[in-house]
Amino acid sequence: MTGAGVTIEAPAPAPASRAPGVIFIFKKALISALVALVLFSLMIGIRTEAGPEGQLIWWTRFGDLAAMVAIVFGGSIVMELLRQWWGPVGTIRVIPPSVHGALALARRGIAPVLLIFTFLVPVIFYNQRYILDLGILVLTYVMLGWGLNVVVGLAGLLDLGYVAFYAVGAYSYALLATNFGLSFWICLPLAGILAALWGVMLGFPVLRLRGDYLAIVTLAFGEIIRLVITNWQSLTGGPNGVSGIPRPTFFGIPLTPGPDGLAAKLGIEFSPTHRIVFLFYIILLLALLTNWVTIRLRRLPIGRAWEALREDEVACRALGINITTTKLTAFATGAMFGGFAGAFFATRQGFISPESFTFQESALVLAIVVLGGMGSQLGVALAALIMIGGFELFRGLEQYRMLVFGVAMVLLMIWRPRGLIGHRAPTVFLRHSQAISSDLVKEGHG
Amino acid sequence: MRGDCILSVDHLSMRFGGIVAVNDLSFAAGRRNITALIGPNGAGKTTVFNCITGFYKPTSGMMRLIHDGGTEIRLERLNDFRISKQARVARTFQNIRLFPGMTALENLMVAQHNALMLASGLTFLGLIGAPSWRKAEKRAIDLAQTWLERIGLLGRADDAAGNLPYGDQRRLEIARAMCTEPALLCLDEPAAGLNARESAGLSELLLSIRAEHGTSILLIEHDMSVVMEISDHVVVMDYGVKIAEGTPSDIRDHPKVIAAYLGVEDDEVAAVESELGL
After folding, report:
1. Which of A428, A430, A411 is nearest to A420 (CA)?
2. What fold characterizes domain A107-415?
3. Which among A301, A311, A432 is the nearest to B116, CB-wise?
4. To which CATH superfamily is domain B1-88+182-278 assigned?
5. Which residue of B52, B79, B80 is the best one to mutate when testing the A interface, meaning the one whose CB has the most A CBs within 10 A?
6. Through-space distance between the first and last CA atoms of chain B, rounded to whole angstroms
7. Reported confidence tier of residue A410, pLDDT bands at 50, 70, 90
C-alpha cells in the first residue's frame, strides 16, 4: 500500500468540519485539566487540620490530586466525543423524535392509569404503612401544586408565599377544632374561605406589582404569616404549636377502637390502618375536587381571563376585562385550595407548629408547578410524584441524595425547559383540539 | 359634522413632562362614519388613541362619547377597562396584541368576557353547568365562528394565534375588538405591514363592518390608499396639533398637509421667513 503511486484520498469535508480533530479534543481536555489542577491543588493537594495542641498541621496528597486531574482530563475527552456522536443539536431537542412520539402516546394513557392506580394504592399496599403515608404526602403536594397552578400557571402571577395559605388553613382548622369543638367537615370549608380571604388581602397590595417585585412581596407575605403565628403565643401557642387536633370522623362516627368506633359499628376488627386509608381517600378526593374545579374554571370566562392576563395584560384591559378582580379571584381560588390542604394537614398530623410552614415549603410547591409545566394539571401531578416520591426513593443514597436530586432537576430542565408537560391544551375548539407549543405560550410577567 | 357625532374631542392636551404630545386638539367623529386620523410619524396620533381608550389620562380636555340612545359618556372620567365595558370603545394596537398562546377561537371568546361572565352567573352557574350558561356559551362560540368566517380564518380556528401569518393576525385582532360589540372601533394602523391585496381586503372588511353593524370607526393609518378609499372624514395632525380636516379629496390637495408630509420648497421657506421678518 505504501508507495509513490498510491493516491491519498482527501478526507471527506463534511465529517471534518463537524468533528474537530484529535488535536482539538486534546487541547480542550488539557485546558480543563489545567483548570482542575489550579482549583484542586489547594482543595485536594494540601490537607490542613488542627493538631492535638491546636497548631496547624498539613500534609500533601499529590496522588489524589493527580487522580482528580486525570479524571477531569478523561471526562473532558469523553464529553467531547459524546457531543460529536450526538451531532450539533439544540439543547431542547436532545430527545430523539421517536421517543417524543412514544411519550405522546404514553401521555394520553397516563392520566387514567395513574388515577386508577391511585385509587387502588390502599388496597395494594394495605399492610405497608410507609407507602400509605408517602401516598398521603404526595397527594397533599399534588393538591398544593394544583392550587398554586391556578395562580402561577394560569394567571401567571409568581407567588413565593403560597405556604401562608397552607398555614392559614391548618391553623384555622386547628384553632376552630380545639377551641370550639367544630368537626373537620365543618371546618374544611371555613378554612378554605379564610385562606381565600387572606388571598384577597395579599392580592390587593400586589395588584400593581409585576415579576420580581411581586415575587418579593409574596415571599415577605409568607414570612409575615409565619412570624405572626410564631409570636402570637396567646392564640396560636407560638413555637409550641397546637396539639391534640381532632381526627376526622366518618359522618360523625370516629375511627377509634371503642364501641362507638366505625370498626365496631361495621362489625370488623379495629386496625389503626383504617384511619390511614380513610385519610388517604380524603386527600385523594380533595385533590380531585381541586383538579375538577380548576379544569372547569379554565373553560369558564374567568379561567380564560386568567390565561389571557398571563398572555397580555394590556390587551385584556382593552377588551374590558377588569384586571383587579381577575387577579384577586386567581389569588383567592389558589389560596382556597391551599387552605383546604392546610386543614387536611392539621387533621392528619394532629399537631402543627410554625416549623411546618417555612419558605422551603413554598419553594417546593413552586418547584413542583414549574417542573410539571405551568398550567398543566397532569404535569403538576407527575412533578409532585417525582419530587416527593422520588426524593424518598433516593433515601438509600444518604448524603448524596441532594446531589443526585439536584443533577436530576438540572437535566430535566435542560431537556424540557418548560416543564414535563409544557404545551397548552385549548379550552374550547371547533373541530379538533390541538396542543399549543410551549414556544408560543407566555409565562406571564409576574 | 357637529350634528350627529359619536365622539367629540374638545381641547385635548397631553403632556409628558416637558413634551407636549397633543396640544389643544379638537375634532369629532361622525356616527356610522369612518374617520381617519393621519399625520407624519410622531405627530401624536397614537397618544390621542391612548387618551380615548383610557390608557393615558389626558392633561386637559374633554372627550364625549354619545351612544345611539343619546346617553353621553365622558371618556376622560373612566379608567382603563371601563372604557371598553361601559363606553363600548374597542381598539386594536399598532404592534399586534393578540394572546399568542391561545387559539384564534379562544381569542374571540376572551373578547366576550363581560357578557359571558354575566351569563355564567359570575362563574357559579357555569361551575355547576347550568343550561342557561351552556346556551350562552354556545351563542358565544357561534358569534366567534361568524367572525372567523368573515375574516376567512374559520379553517384556522383551532390554531394558536401566535402561529398565524401577520395579515391574519391583523384581521383577527379587528375581529376580536368587534366581538366586544363596540359602538366605536379604534384601529391603530390596521394596514401596517399588509401587502396591496391584503390592504384592499381590509378596506372591504371595514366598510362591511360599518354597513352591517353600524359601528363607527376611528382609524390611524399611513396607507393613503386605504385612507382615501374608505374614510368619510380625515383629520390631519402634525406636532400634536390639528393642521387640517375635511373629506379625503379636500385633504389630498391641502397645502399644509402636503407640506407636513413632503416638506416645503426652499422658496416657500424664504417666503415664510420674510413674512416673519427673519
Report:
1. A411
2. ABC transporter involved in vitamin B12 uptake, BtuC (1.10.3470)
3. A301
4. P-loop containing nucleotide triphosphate hydrolases (3.40.50.300)
5. B80
6. 39
7. confident
Pairing of strands B233-238, B241-246: antiparallel
The per-residue pLDDT for A174 is 93
Question: Can you give the pLDDT at residue A5?
Answer: 43
**Pairing relationship of beta strands B34-38 and B72-74 according to DSSP bridges:** unpaired
- Cβ-based neighbours of B56, under 8 Å, separated by 6 or more: B14, B47, B50
In this predicted structure, the answer to whether residue A271 has a pLDDT above a threshold of 70 is yes
- CB atoms under 10 Å from CB of A207, counted, come to 13
Residues in chain B, pLDDT under 70: 1-3, 264, 269, 272, 276-278
Contact A442 B100 (CB under 8 A): yes
ipTM of the complex: 0.88
Percent of chain A with pLDDT over 90: 35
Inter-chain residue contact A311 with B114, CB threshold 8 Å: no
- Which residues is B14 bridged to in the sheet? B22
DSSP assignment letter at A126: T
Angle at which helices A163-180 and A184-203 cross, to 10°: 140
Q: What is the pLDDT of residue A8?
A: 46
Amino acid at A222: G
CB B222 within 8 A of CB B198: no
Residue B104 in 3-state DSSP?
Answer: helix
- Domain range list for chain B: 1-88+182-278, 99-180
Q: Do A434 and B112 touch (CB under 8 A)?
A: no
Q: Is A225 on the interface with B (CB under 8 A)?
A: no
pLDDT in tens, A162-210: 999 999 999 999 999 999 988 889 999 999 999 999 999 888 888 888 8
**B125 interface with A at CB cutoff 8 Å:** no
Residue pair A250/A278 in contact by the 8 Å Cβ criterion:
yes
* Cβ contacts of B110 on chain A, cutoff 8 Å: 301, 304-305, 308, 316, 319, 321
Q: Which residues contact A10 (CB under 8 A, 6 or more apart)?
A: none
pTM for this model (two decimals): 0.82
What pLDDT is recorded for position A89?
54
Instruction: Kindly determine whether residue B113 and residue A320, on different chains, have CB atoms separated by under 8 Å.
Output: yes
A327 has a chain B CB within 8 A of its CB: no
Per-residue model confidence as pLDDT tens digits over A86-135: 766 554 555 666 776 776 677 778 888 888 888 888 888 888 888 899 99
pLDDT at A19: 54
pLDDT of residue B253: 83
Q: What is the CA radius of gyration of chain A?
A: 28
Domain range annotation of chain A: 18-88, 107-415
Put simply, the answer to whether B97 touches A312 (Cβ < 8 Å) is: yes
Cβ of A317 within 8 Å of Cβ of B162? The answer is no
Residue A1, pLDDT score = 39
Our CA angle for A152, A153, A155, nearest 5°, is 70
The secondary structure of residue B214, as a DSSP letter, is: -
| Residue B34 backbone dihedrals phi, psi, to 5 degrees | -110, 115
B103 touches chain A (CB under 8 A): yes
